[in-house]
């Protein structure tokens, strides 16, 4: 696929589903994704990490009408893997894919490692945690800590948790689509 075809696909997904509610939270899907990207950018993250923060929930926007593909009213089952694979197929780096694919594992890890983190989760995040396997086991946590992108994954998770603010001035989606376009062009 060409860069423009990928950007067009992303734009279409945002146009079709970006204004949908972000499952049990006071923001839309697109607002949540933009806020995540803004937080990554403000933290001085590199382009791949900003893109991962921006697209971390792209799997929720991929079409499916099958009931078994959904966590009741809380989005797509395995949205993190679906999104990461979808982006891999389009030439995104393994770093971008890993940061996205494991942001749910980061929630599972943090609820195991830091019980106070569990107490801070929103009601919707607690509900999805049930669908996602609950807190990790000690063995799962140890294996997760060995992921070469471990620190970046935790960062994306942190921005994901914070990206639920209402009435926040948002940059246009085009800003992060342009960062994505430039990244894809450089990656060729």
TrEMBL record:
InterPro entries: HD/PDEase_dom, HD_domain, HDIG_dom, OP_Dioxygenase, Phosphonate_degrad-assoc
Record-annotated HD domain positions: 29-124
Entries under SUPFAM superfamilies matching the protein: HD-domain/PDEase-like
Signal peptide feature range: none
Domain of life of the native organism: Bacteria
Protein name: HD domain-containing protein
């Amino acid at each position: 696929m060409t860069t423009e075809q990928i950007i067009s696909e992303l734009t279409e997904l945002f146009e079709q589903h970006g204004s949908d509610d972000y499952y049990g939270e006071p923001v839309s899907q697109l607002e949540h994704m933009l806020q995540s990207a803004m937080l990554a950018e403000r933290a001085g993250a590199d382009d791949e990490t900003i893109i991962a923060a921006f697209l971390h929930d792209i799997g929720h926007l991929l079409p499916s009408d099958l009931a078994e593909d959904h966590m009741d009213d809380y989005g797509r089952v395995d949205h993190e893997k679906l999104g990461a694979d979808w982006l891999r197929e389009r030439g995104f780096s393994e770093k971008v894919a890993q940061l996205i694919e494991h942001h749910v594992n980061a929630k599972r890890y943090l609820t195991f490692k830091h019980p106070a983190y569990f107490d801070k989760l929103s009601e919707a995040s607690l509900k999805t945690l049930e669908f996602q396997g609950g807190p990790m086991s000690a063995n799962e946590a140890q294996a997760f800590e060995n992921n070469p992108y471990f620190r970046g994954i935790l960062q994306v998770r942190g921005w994901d948790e914070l990206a639920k603010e209402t009435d926040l001035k948002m940059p246009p989606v085009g800003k992060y689509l342009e960062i994505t376009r430039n990244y894809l062009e450089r990656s060729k």
